[in-house]
Amino acid sequence: MRQGSVETSHHLFLECIVAQQVCFLCLRWMGILFVQHKDLKVHFENFHLVHLNTKQNLLWKGLWVTAVRGIWEQRNQVIFKQGKPDAEEIFHRAQLNSWLWLKNRVHNFNFSFSNWILNPELCVKSYR
Predict the structure, then answer these.
(1) Backbone angles phi and psi of 86, in degrees to 5
(2) Which DSSP string do the residues of 79-124 spell out, in sequence order?
């Protein structure tokens, strides 16, 4: 997150070390390893997992959306309220926000927060 210069979406979501750390934490949490693409659209498209069906991929992409939102919110904290970038905080907030979204929006998503934290891939794969 740049301080004192114009921020671009490319830098904020792909080049920024904090954003890269958040992405790595999300992927590691799901047990996935792949190289991050440097194009934002392709980066999002890479969040389609071939071993998941369409509905399961929507849940997985929901995590990406909550992580991107967290990066944006933290960027605003840094710029407007002298906050400090913290990848772990963004990641943990994305875990919580994605679980809350799933719990409130996805029919038959009956997993506890601890289940979501401990085994997100199982939670996503069980959604049919």
Answers:
(1) -145, 100
(2) HHH-----HHHHHHHHHHHHHHHHHHHSTT----HHHHHH-HHHHH
* Structure tokens belonging to residue 91: 């990641």
The residue extents of the domains of the chain are 9-125
Contacts 24+ apart (CB under 8 A), 101-108: 101/62, 101/66, 102/59, 102/62, 106/59
Q: Which two tokens stand for residue 45?
A: 């498209």
Residue type, position 55, single letter:
K
Read off the pTM.
Answer: 0.78
Residue 103: Cβ within 10 Å count: 14
Tens digit of pLDDT for each residue in 65-120?
888 899 889 888 888 988 888 999 999 999 999 999 988 988 888 899 999 999 98
The two structure tokens encoding residue 50? 């071939």
Q: What is the pLDDT of residue 37?
A: 64
